[in-house]
Amino acid sequence: MDWLQISIRTSHEAMDLIASIFDDLGANGVAMEDPAIVNDYINSKLWDYTDIPVQKNTEVVVVNAWLPKDHLLDSRLKALNGRIEKLSQTVNTAPCETMFSDIKEEDWANSWKKYFHPSKIGKRIVVKPSWEEYTKKENEIVVELDPGCAFGTGTHPTTTMCIQFMEEYLKPQTRLFDVGTGSGILAICAAKLGVKNIQAADYDNVAVKVAKANIEENNVENVIKCFQSDLLKNFTGKADFISANIIADIVLRLFADLSKKLTKNGIFLASGIIKERLDDIKAAAAKHNMQIVDMKEKGGWVALIIKYREDS
After folding, report:
1. Are 175 and 159 in contact (CB under 8 A)?
2. For the chain, which domains are there?
3. Residues β-bridged to residue 269
4. Rounded to an integer, what is the distance from CA 58 to the centroid of its chain?
5. Residue 59 DSSP symbol
6. Is it the case that residue 168 has pLDDT exceeding 70?
7. From which residue to which does any coiled coil extend (predicted)?
8. Which has fewest Cβ within 10 Å: 197, 230, 243, 275?
9. Which parts are annotated binding residues for S-adenosyl-L-methionine?
10. Which of 205, 199, 201, 243 lies closest to 220 in space, CA to CA?
């Protein structure tokens, strides 16, 4: 079967939402081209050599997706146009330029793999796809993760900041809930960091399937229970650490349930939040007697460590 590659130039604010639309339409893979991330890697000196120039325009990202050229293609493209138009009414999607490329079946296997390479995204954690070779250095933790129709490959700023916070705050005895687990990357990283009691869930059954496969690939299925759940609904007991790398509106919904699912001295790690929504999160935290105690910012996104006030 041949494929149609669809590339949409858009804003940081809209890229995850557009990726989600592609996922809903049955895209066989979604990949982001974010020049801000490219610059971060060039400046980090993690690459031994690169001939990639520093990117000057970091405001525009490209969301790539691949749809099969079958009898459903026309209806999927029509649905895509309609949903993008609707999204543009509430979110800045500019420049919202769409490009199309035909991909032959024989070229498909490698056309999307070029977007994924080993990436060191924390002090110790390296994420690599299965087809790439990587020589582990001393004290590094390698997570093997193949991207599928689920989000979380480690390179997006919201994910890297979460993992960096996990390296700082997690302890082996931590009980962890990962809400909206996507590819399972945060739960897997937590397990690799030594956490022994993890529940991970996603609303999307496709994401749950992908996450379970990645969990098994990393041999951590004995410490991670993965299942379908609408936010915290199907999680059992209470956690010392709840991670949610989703979007601001969903993070806001979670606050109402934290009292039932987070221990008094527990940590709520909230990410997937554009900087412009930070005040909304602060207000919601204050309303539930919580406060932001630590924050990271990268590429227009923020990740937050939120805890109950000491007088609560």
Report:
1. no
2. 3-105 (3.30.70.120), 119-308 (3.40.50.150)
3. 243, 305
4. 19
5. S
6. yes
7. none
8. 230
9. 159, 180, 202, 245
10. 199
